Amino acid sequence: MSPAPQDSVPGDAGPSRSQLVTPDDFDALYRGWQADIRKITDTLDNWALVGIKRRGAVLARRLLEDLGGSGGAGGGGPAYGELDISLYRDDYHLQTGAPEVLGTEISFPVEEKSIVLVDDVLYTGRTIRAALDLVLDFGRPRRIWLAVLVDRGNREFPIEANLTGQRFETARDDRVQVRLREMGDDYDGVDLTSFVESGA
Q1: Could you name the CATH architecture of 23-195?
Q2: What's the predicted TM-score (pTM) here?
Q3: Which of 58, 73, 75, 130 is the most exposed place for a label (fewest CB within 10 A)?
């Protein structure tokens, strides 16, 4: 998918902004991703949706509304939880100030649970590594599926998603942000901010 036209000044160095997924296209992206996730969850009878704060948790709450009623193979809705990985980051010891701690909410037994772990963007894999460590501190799940809306590449850890909405090739220094109305954004979409070199 080609990005929408960029907002930049030719010859200037600085941020160049574009839309990887426009508001008009976002619903189709989300619905296709949701349908792929449903194919998995409809076969499960003891499962949970777990979102990574912040935007992964927002997407997980949307999925809970859309998938919870399906009930899976056992006819009951999923358990639900949210993870705050702030204290599990591998750069925690390098931070100079106190991290913002949002709190983890897991109120169900993880043992033998099938878990769909949800995040908005998969990048280096470090966030997911931290999330997996946090889940395992609660117990030993039967299986974990990773569902991400956007995979932007540039992995540093050997981690891949099972369920991906859209993949994009991005530069390491680019910023990719999933916009969500629940987070106070004006629209749902996926934005790209990159840096262009000044002209000769």
Answers
A1: 3-Layer(aba) Sandwich (3.40)
A2: 0.87
A3: 75
